[in-house]
From TrEMBL, chain A:
Keywords: Amino-acid transport, Cell membrane, Membrane, Transmembrane, Transmembrane helix, Transport
Organism, as annotated: Shinella yambaruensis
Residues of the signal peptide: none
Identification of the protein by name: Branched-chain amino acid ABC transporter permease
Membrane topology label: Multi-pass membrane protein
Automatic annotation (TrEMBL), chain B:
Pfam families attached to this UniProt entry: ABC_tran
The UniProt record lists the keyword ATP-binding: yes
Domain of life the protein comes from: Bacteria
UniProt similarity note: Belongs to the ABC transporter superfamily.
Residue stretches making up the ABC transporter domain: 2-233
The protein's name: Amino acid/amide ABC transporter ATP-binding protein 2 (HAAT family)
A GO molecular function held by the record: branched-chain amino acid transmembrane transporter activity
PROSITE patterns linked to this entry: ABC_TRANSPORTER_1, ABC_TRANSPORTER_2
Automatic annotation (TrEMBL), chain C:
Residue span, ABC transporter domain: 4-251
Protein name in UniProt: ABC transporter ATP-binding protein
Gene3D superfamilies: P-loop containing nucleotide triphosphate hydrolases (3.40.50.300)
Pfam (any one): BCA_ABC_TP_C
Superkingdom of source: Bacteria
Keywords, in A-Z order: ATP-binding, Nucleotide-binding, Transport
Keyword Nucleotide-binding: yes
Recorded GO MF terms: ATP binding
From TrEMBL, chain D:
Ranges that cross the membrane: 12-32, 38-56, 86-104, 111-129, 165-185, 256-277, 289-308
Source domain of life: Bacteria
UniProt KW Hydrolase keyword: no
InterPro entries: ABC_transp_permease, LivM-like
Name by which UniProt lists this protein: ABC transporter permease
Keywords per UniProt: Cell membrane, Membrane, Transmembrane, Transmembrane helix
First and last residue of the signal peptide: none
Location of this chain's protein in the cell: Cell membrane
The keyword Phosphoprotein appears for this protein: no
Pfam family, one: BPD_transp_2
Organism field: Shinella yambaruensis
Coiled-coil region: none
Length: 290, 233, 261, 320, 357
């Protein structure tokens, strides 16, 4: 069954990309209940800035580091300039702000950089690795490892650290959070910085595979969003599993059923899962008594 | 310890506090009574910093608080058990308590938590349950316990006895008294005016955003008007 | 003939028996109070009776009809109405509209009539608005009618919920701590209101921690502890029941109670 | 979000007056085109006001219904021999039926879960439209037959240019659509929708069949979107799957929220702004995207309830 | 001034077609105006960005005609936008030169509509000719599901029978997909497939090419003219792209053209000017815009008038105009005016292009 294996490897590769994006959503969502639709732009920025820094002669690791730091800075700016001033606005308004931000970032990127598609070299070459008749590129392993590592860090962050719980508390009840002494502005800033950095890191990891250009953000954000919802928004485990599942679903559909309708199949499965589990696979039900 | 002068506050265009003057001495228990909508909750919200103040001053231990953000007031020793409980419904009881001591990370946190469990054993039973699943009264206990976890030097309590069984109402007032013994200052807003005035040193009466009467608790409790309007006697 | 009949009702949360084997009945115009320590299962019992939770065991009958696990809106149609311990207000609507919303069942027509604003639909709307104003007056919120509901104080919101529940013209009314957040004088007003409603033939099931109020207006009291019914009877006998005193009233409060009574 | 400022009559009057008077100031017939687009978008947004503003349910897939309405007008005349106007009605009926079927399961979901489910629905529709190329012409689209009403008008002596006709016609449809939606607002149905928006449990206990009313809102808004798609198709005489695309869904929601989903005029104003903005921003050339994003952010930051409600609040504030 | 309009997809999914098109037009107009304009009149170029949205394009088309009162329009980057705006120009009787590929734009012929790029059908024909020569009769198809890929797939399937070639596997991928190994695995697993054809543009073909190498499919891989730019080799990686064949225009191999080639002077001049002006490598798509403007300017010059109908007539009389895509000769029946010779079969070797004819 080398085909099955190949489909699986392909699914895991793509799934890890989705998982990385989905993981980026979790922190801001956990801190504010807002799905940041500009998350895809963070991924795009990670790839684009790395490419241009690399093209300007910097070694790849340094270029990637600059990209991550710069993107984190942009995340903080987004919070300070757009989210914080709108504090207390209804969640839909905040979502529109993040959509506006994503259009803005896209517009700025095409001006500062360009509208071409770019790629930088894979970290460990392009020699495919053979596994039982199927192949996988070394870069895919990087992506998978990245997704696992970020998942693990986030999981630790939210379950083992006080500040992680403060993030959750901020989203759950901002006023109460202030009343116990949590600086909610700081929590928000931190969340945006971390989300943006994770997004940028994702961009750095996936660009050798997916390529990048100023407008890849939206599609990535959409898939990442779907993956996160499938797994249950806000839960790192959900993001990881949701991403991988979505990728494998797509690959299997493309391989066995119809490549035309692989996205459709993915969404049908998401609908089916949500029908049975309205909170996604691992989402927790909010417990509000009446 | 806490001095409020000419405090005004508004929701949108509607002013609901029209210049409140009030002071609380260190180690004192002071209570505010008043009818529904008098502005008691608003006053406490102004003090803890989650409600903007449009005029007047709040001075706490010699420092002007008016521009200090809410979270920083906690650091200065001012904690609140708010109206509507405002617990973290998605977090467990234990996490709620831990966050109450957000500013601390020493061994005493655990001791404080055990004290809280001793005070409200039911919370210990439910420690791993999402706080949103607690009954109304249990949530009220959690809100009080969480405020105590912050090791306040001045505690603002907004109707702490609300929704509690009679046996616990008595206990809450005992707790308030014992806090005084520990040197904690308490500003208590209560609908159970009788209970509140019984434990308080002094009291204020609030009517539609103004202080209309104040004095030693014993005097207030004996005042005919107060007996008629708030105690139902 | 009992209007509301509850038998062996029970539900579990994560293995904990929140309510177990609770049964009692309610006659027309009767006021029955459910009391018990915090977490005894009073609100959960209300939630099961009103269809918010599906009971795991037992049976609820309304006027002889088995209504166990029936969704709330169908129970409402059969004359069961309630208020909430954790306020459930239509925040972005005005106070008046909150009360009008309580008339939903009486003003309901077809969507088409509403879309085209047919005269019948308008007439129904107007009728329920008038009735809602009267109800607001009754609970003392007449002057706040045009205000945004979100801007009321806690005590006022409690009364708004009562008005909204009354708008259904219920046969059975479930009140979960209606006097919480009200001072003694305000509580007495609510007292009178409840008594008057009961006098009109509405059966009332009441959860309340204010013992003065409970003793004053209840015909019958059911005591829960840890989800089980531990006592039941006339107010006077309940106040003396040692198990109730120990679990719920506390010696101090019981003394005060007896001194008052 | 209380719609105090706009009693039904004033809202309709303002709307009708603006539609009737604006052409006096139009320097060229291009403005009629922009106007008619505003009305077409405004109609879809009016439907979303019912869904988002009244009932508090979000949908990121409503363009799917616009797609159904649009392609009904393209396909039904060719394959079923229907008159384009009837095709639009058929499209609306089909949209309602699909909304009814799809709505049942997905409206059980809340918040973002509903958003992603509706988004999935929209993507399914646009995917079918672009994959079934034999039928729909694929991503490159297909032609739509003439509505023919203009010719009828001409026969009775009213001679309008193409753009003028569509301006007047979609304006009329918008006014009717807004009238219906406004009727709904103060009606028992509208109240039930707003009640379940506030608290589903409480709505249930006052007798509101929450699932039913959510479905009502969903179906109604689907019909609005469908008619809007039909109008667009008939006006452009050419249609591509973009009309059902994700971006179009987002655009619709943005229009509603930007203007103020709680107020009908506000939402239509939002449609007007987002429709004209790209036209205005062309002077900024490469900076167009940047400006668009910036405007969206600024409006939502400084007018969090949406443009019109915030302005109204400010005016009322100053008056006192 | 002579007002010429354009509505292009400078942003959106087709932006890397529309972007060089817009840049080219702006650059050329500047050049022409600097050299004194056309018939002594300056050109006033008005460019709108429709973002690839046909509805927006339609509004801009109306604006160009009604508000800006242009005498001719270039644009419609994609087939969808072009088809959506054709009725506007036909109604207003303004000549319109589309930059999109589909044959529907000029077939049937509409009086005022022209186009410059080869049709997809021509690209298909060029590829199938090459396959036939190589003795390939069974292929696998993997096409992008965007407008470009879907349209070319359709055209190819329509004429493939004429070449006796059979499609054994017919796969697609979405425009933003990141991995096409499942589809390629299926093609690879089909017995008898001798070559693979990939109609598509954007990043898709680059990823297909990379996955193709990863899976060591080992069969000849044909790409379409949609990827005809140096950027493609860079994206796919020289190693993975080695041996890929595609029909390209003279522009792509400007430096490799023999001195005798009639197009050489034109393409070298454009390439140098463009790369100097923008700092970006030239692409086939910019060439489409280049040709459109040249045709228009040539027609206005010959017409000696800026009357739209006169311009239209003159465009139809274009004869032997050398552009980047080929030599254009229009007639009343042919509003494209290119033949197959305009395409050159190219192969990628060692990271560069080679003409294989
Ligand atoms: N969010 C709000 N928006 C507008 N007005 C408000 C808001 N909250 C409270 N008010 C108004 O402010 C006044 C004071 O309310 P507050 O909640 O402080 O009263 P209270 O004394 O705590 O009453 P209660 O005993 O019922 O809790 C009331 O008239 C109330 O209607
Ligand atoms: N959704 C839920 N999830 C978990 N536990 C629950 C849930 N609902 C109720 N419980 C548990 O059931 C028990 C009964 O709760 P309930 O709210 O009925 O108490 P109550 O008698 O109304 O108390 P109070 O007087 O404090 O309002 C509590 O211990 C509570 O923790
Ligand atoms: Mg209060
Ligand atoms: Mg309770």
């Amino acid at each position: 069954m080398p085909e099955l294996l190949q489909f699986l490897l392909s699914g895991i590769t793509v799934g890890a990309v989705y998982a990385l994006v989905a993981l980026g959503f979790t922190i801001i969502y956990n801190a504010s209940d807002v799905v940041n639709f500009a998350q895809g732009e963070f991924v795009m920025l990670g790839g684009m800035i790395t490419f241009f820094a690399h093209a300007a002669g910097l070694p790849l690791p340094l270029a990637a580091l600059i990209a991550i730091i710069a993107t984190a800075g942009i995340g903080v700016a987004l919070n300070k300039l757009a989210i914080e001033p709108a504090r207390g606005a209804p969640v839909v308004s905040l979502i529109i702000i993040t959509i506006g931000a994503s259009i803005f970032i896209r517009g700025a990127t095409q001006l500062v950089f360009d509208k071409q598609i770019h790629r930088f070299p894979a970290f460990s070459g392009d020699q495919p690795i053979l596994i039982g008749g199927a192949t996988i590129l070394p870069q895919s392993l990087w992506v998978i490892a990245g997704a696992l590592a970020i998942f693990f860090c986030l999981w630790l962050f939210f379950t083992r650290t006080l500040i992680g719980r403060a993030v959750l508390a901020t989203a759950n009840n901002r006023i109460a959070a202030q009343l116990v002494g949590i600086n909610t502005n700081y929590v928000m800033t931190l969340s945006f910085a971390m989300s943006a950095a994770i997004g940028a890191l994702a961009g750095v990891l996936v660009t050798p595979i997916t390529l990048t250009s100023y407008d890849v953000g939206l599609a990535l954000a959409l898939k990442g969003f779907a993956a996160a919802m499938l797994g249950g928004m806000g839960n790192p485990k959900g993001a990881l599993v949701g991403g991988l599942l979505l990728g494998i679903l797509e690959a299997m559909t493309a391989g066995y059923i119809s490549s035309q309708y692989k996205d459709a199949a993915a969404f049908v499965v998401i609908l089916a899962v949500l029908f049975a589990m309205p909170q996604g696979l691992f989402g927790r039900k909010s417990t509000d008594r009446v | 310890m806490l001095t409020v002068e000419g405090l005004r506050s508004r929701y949108g265009r509607i002013e609901v506090l029209h210049g409140i003057d009030l002071d609380v001495a260190s180690g004192e228990i002071v209570t505010v009574v008043g009818a529904n909508g008098a502005g008691k909750t608003t006053l406490l919200k102004c003090l803890s910093g989650i409600q903007p103040v449009s005029a007047g001053s709040i001075v706490f231990r010699g420092e002007a608080l008016t521009t200090v953000p809410a979270h920083a007031r906690v650091r200065r020793g001012l904690a609140q058990s708010p109206e509507g409980r405002q617990i973290f419904t998605n977090l467990t009881v234990e996490e709620n308590l831990r966050l109450g001591a957000y500013l601390f990370s020493d061994d005493k946190v655990e001791r404080d938590r055990d004290d809280a469990f001793a005070m409200f054993p039911i919370l210990k039973e439910k420690r791993n349950l999402a706080a949103g699943g607690l009954s109304g009264g249990q949530q009220q206990m959690l809100a009080i316990a969480r405020a105590l976890m912050g090791r306040p030097s001045c505690l603002l309590l907004d109707e702490p006895s609300m929704g509690l069984a009679p046996i616990l109402v008595a206990q809450i007032f005992d707790v308030v008294k014992s806090l005084k013994a520990l040197g904690v200052t308490v500003l208590l807003v209560e609908q159970n005016a009788f209970g509140a005035l019984s434990v308080a040193d002094r009291g204020y009466v609030m009517e539609t955003g103004r202080i209309t009467m104040s004095g030693p608790a014993a005097e207030l409790i004996a005042d005919e008007r107060i007996r008629a309007a708030y105690l139902g006697i | 003939m009992s209007l509301l009949q509850i038998e062996g009702l029970g539900i579990d949360f994560g293995g904990v028996r929140a309510v177990n084997d609770v049964g009692f009945s309610l006659k027309p115009g009767e006021i029955v109070s459910v009391i018990g320590p915090n977490g005894a299962g009073k609100t959960t019992l209300f939630n099961m009776i009103s269809g918010v939770y599906a009971p795991a065991r037992g049976r609820v009958a309304l006027d002889g009809e088995d209504v166990t696990r029936m969704p709330p809106h169908q129970l409402a149609r059969r004359g069961l109405s309630r208020t909430f311990q954790n306020l459930q207000i239509f925040q972005s609507m005005s106070v008046l509209e909150n009360a009008v919303a309580g008339h939903h069942l009486h003003e309901r027509g077809s969507v088409f009539a509403d879309l085209f604003s047919l005269p019948a639909a308008r007439r129904r709307s107007r009728a329920s608005e008038e009735s809602a104003r009267a109800l607001l007056d009754r609970v003392g919120l007449g002057r706040a009618a045009e205000q945004e509901a979100g801007s009321l104080s806690y005590g006022a919101l409690k009364r708004l919920e009562i008005a909204r529940a009354l708008a259904l013209k219920p046969r059975v009314l479930l009140l979960d701590e209606p006097a919480a957040g009200c001072n003694a004088v305000e509580t007495e007003e609510i007292d009178h209101l409840i008594a008057k409603v009961a006098a009109e033939g509405v059966s009332i099931l009441l959860v309340e921690h204010d013992m003065k109020m409970v003793m004053r207006i209840s015909n019958h009291i059911v005591v829960l502890d840890h989800g089980e019914k531990i006592a039941e009877g006339e107010p006077a006998s309940i106040a003396r029941d040692p198990r109730v005193i120990e679990a719920y009233l506390g010696a101090q409060a019981a003394e005060a109670q007896n001194a008052d009574g | 979000m209380i719609m105090r400022l706009s009693s039904k009559a004033t809202t309709l009057l303002i709307l009708a007056a603006v539609i009737a008077i604006a052409p006096v100031f139009f320097p060229s017939s291009y403005y009629f085109r922009v106007g008619s687009l505003i009305f077409v978008n405004g109609l879809a947004v009016t439907g979303l006001v019912i869904l988002i503003g009244y009932a508090g349910q979000i949908s990121l897939g409503h363009a799917g219904f616009a797609g159904i309405g649009a392609y009904a007008c393209a396909l039904a005349p060719v394959h079923l021999g229907l008159h384009p106007a009837l095709a639009a009605v058929l499209g609306a009926a089909l949209s309602a039926a699909i909304a009814f079927l799809v709505g049942r399961p997905i409206l059980r979901l809340k918040g973002y879960y509903l958003a992603v489910a509706s988004l999935g629905f929209g993507i399914l529709v646009s995917m079918v439209l672009s994959n079934e190329a034999q039928l729909t012409g694929g991503p490159d689209g297909m032609a739509v037959p003439e509505l023919g009403l203009r010719a009828v008008l001409k026969a009775i002596g009213i001679d309008l240019s193409n753009t003028e006709f569509w301006y007047a016609f979609s304006g009329l449809v918008l006014v009717i659509g807004a009238w219906l939606a406004l009727n709904l607002y103060h009606s028992p149905t509208g109240r039930a929708l707003r009640a379940l928006h506030g608290s589903e449990v409480a709505a249930r206990t006052v007798g509101v069949d929450v699932a039913h009313y959510k479905l009502v809102a969903f179906v109604l808004s689907a019909v609005y979107a469908s008619v809007s798609g039909s109008l667009l198709a008939l006006q452009n005489k050419f249609i591509t799957p973009d009309v059902a695309g994700f971006m179009h869904s987002i655009e619709m929601v943005t229009m509603a929220v930007l203007g103020g989903a709680g107020s009908m005029l506000g939402a239509i104003l939002g449609a007007a702004i987002l429709t004209t903005l790209p036209q205005v921003l062309t002077v900024f050339q490469e900076y167009e995207q940047l400006m668009l994003g910036l405007v969206m952010m600024l409006v939502m930051i400084f007018m969090r309830e949406g443009l019109l409600p915030s302005i109204a609040r400010r005016i009322r504030g100053r008056a006192e | 001034d002579i007002k010429i309009g354009a509505t292009l997809s400078e942003t959106g999914p087709a932006s890397f077609l529309g972007d060089p098109e817009a840049k080219t037009l702006k650059m050329l107009v500047e050049e022409i105006n600097a050299a004194g304009g056309v018939n002594g009149e300056k050109i006033d170029l008005i460019v709108y960005d429709d973002g690839g949205d046909p509805n927006k394009a339609r509004t801009f088309a109306t604006r160009l005609v009604e508000d800006d009162e242009v005498v001719a329009v270039i644009g419609g980057t994609t087939t969808g936008t072009s088809m959506a705006i054709i009725p506007v120009f036909e109604d207003a009787e303004i000549p319109f030169i589309s930059l999109a590929g589909a044959i529907e734009i000029i077939d049937p012929v509409r009086p005022f509509t022209f186009k410059t790029p080869h049709t997809d059908r021509m690209a298909c024909a060029k590829i199938f000719e090459d396959m036939k020569k190589a003795g390939i009769s069974k292929i696998g198809l993997i096409s992008g599901s965007d407008g470009f890929g879907a349209s070319m797939r359709k055209q190819c399937l329509e004429i493939i029978g004429e070449y006796g070639i059979e499609v054994l596997a017919d796969e697609t991928y979405g425009p933003t997909d990141a991995d096409m190994t499942p589809q390629l695995t299926n093609i690879k697993g089909k017995d008898g497939v001798q070559a693979v054809l990939n109609p598509g543009f954007g990043q898709g073909p680059a990823i297909v090419t990379r996955n193709y190498a990863q899976l060591t499919v080992g069969l000849p891989l044909y790409q379409s003219h949609g990827v005809a730019s140096d950027g493609f080799i860079e994206l796919a990686g020289a190693e993975a792209a080695e041996g890929v064949r595609l029909p390209g225009t003279a522009l792509l191999v400007a430096g490799l053209l023999p001195e005798s080639d009639p197009q050489r002077a034109v393409v070298v001049a454009y390439k140098d000017a463009y790369e100097k002006a923008t700092g970006k490598p030239v692409s086939t798509f910019g060439g489409y815009a280049h040709d459109a403007l040249r045709i228009l300017v040539d027609a206005i010059t010959r017409a000696g008038s800026t009357e739209p109908s006169a311009i239209r007539d003159a465009i139809e009389g274009t004869s032997g105009l050398v552009g980047t895509t080929g030599t254009v000769t229009m007639t009343a029946e042919d509003h494209l005016g290119l033949d197959l010779s305009a395409f050159r079969m190219l192969q990628i070797e060692k990271g560069g292009w080679k003409i294989v004819e």
